[in-house]
Amino acid sequence: MTMYSVGKEVVSYCGKCKLSLGHIIASMLSDKIDKVVCKTCNSTHKHKDASAVKPRKMVLGTKVRAKAANDDHWKSAIEKAAQFLPYTPQNHFKLGDTIEHTKFGQGLVEKLIDADKIEVLFREGYKTLVHGK
Ligand SMILES: [Zn+2]
Q1: What's the sign of the alpha-carbon dihedral 7, 11, 12, 15?
Q2: What are the pLDDT digits (tens) for 43-83?
Q3: How far is the CA of 76 from the centre of ligand 1 (A)?
Q4: HEC string of 21-52?
Q5: Residue ranges of domains in the chain
Q6: Cα(7) to centroid of ligand 1, in Å?
Q7: How far is the CA of 14 from the centre of ligand 1 (A)?
Q8: Separation of 17 CA from ligand 1 center, angstroms?
């Protein structure tokens, strides 16, 4: 087991230099390195184990995938739509209605939440709107 102590050199990832470089340990938290001073740019920062720093991967998260699915769904619904009803909170909408919203654009009524709320799929995602007020 390597014993680290203040003043010793350690390889740490420097956020400023964006490289794993030699650093001097500035402070310890029990047996762990707390802060280090970069020998290259002289900045003091938390120790980051160089091996723990992985390059950022472009991962398609579930959110992104869900959005893509919504997007396709939205597109096909909008393409099939015969007419767009202008959205006002006073209008009463049915399931499957396609509406035109001044802010969100064209949307599809996907769900009747209750007597005065509907869930509408817009290009940017689902929005809950009031209707039949
Ligand atoms: Zn540095």
Answers
A1: positive
A2: 999 999 867 666 555 555 667 777 778 888 899 999 999 89
A3: 52
A4: EEEEEEEEECCEEEEEEECCCCCEEECCEHHH
A5: 9-52, 62-130
A6: 17
A7: 5
A8: 4
**Helix (H) / strand (E) containing 114:** strand 105-114
Give the rounded distance of the alpha carbon of 105 from its chain centre: 23
More confident: 33 or 51:
33
Q: How far is the CA of 33 from the centre of ligand 1 (A)?
A: 17
Q: How confident is the model at residue 19 (pLDDT cuts 50, 70, 90)?
A: very high
Tokens of 12: 């740490």
pLDDT digits (tens, 9 = 90+) for 80-110: 998 999 999 999 999 999 999 999 999 999 9
Provide the H-helix boundaries in the chain: 62-80
Residue with tokens 């799929």: 121
Task: Report the candidate in 89, 82, 8 with the shortest Cα–Cα distance to residue 47.
Answer: 8
